Amino acid sequence: MDTPFFTPDRHSEVPDELSKELPGDRDNLTGVSDCMPGGFDPVRMRAERLARTRAMMAEKGIDAIVLFDPYNQRYATGSRNMFGYFLRNSTRYVYVPAQGPVILFEYPGSAHVSTWLETIDDSRTSKVVWSAVNSRDTKVAKPFAEEVASLAREHAGKPAVTIGLDRCSHLHALALEEEGATVRDVMQDMLYTRRLKTRDEVACLKISMGATEAAVAAVERAIKPGISENELFGEMYGEVIKQGGEFIETRLLNSGPRTNPWFNEAGTRTVRPGDLVCLDSDTIGNNGYYSDFSRTFFCGPGRPSGYQKSLYAMAWEQVQHNIAALKPGMTYRELAERAWKIPERFYDRRYPSIIHGVGMHGETPLVAHWGNFDKFSTDDVLEPGLTVSVESYIGEVGGTDGVKLEEEVLITEEGAELISRYPCDEQLLERVV
Question: pTM of the prediction?
Answer without folding.
Answer: 0.90
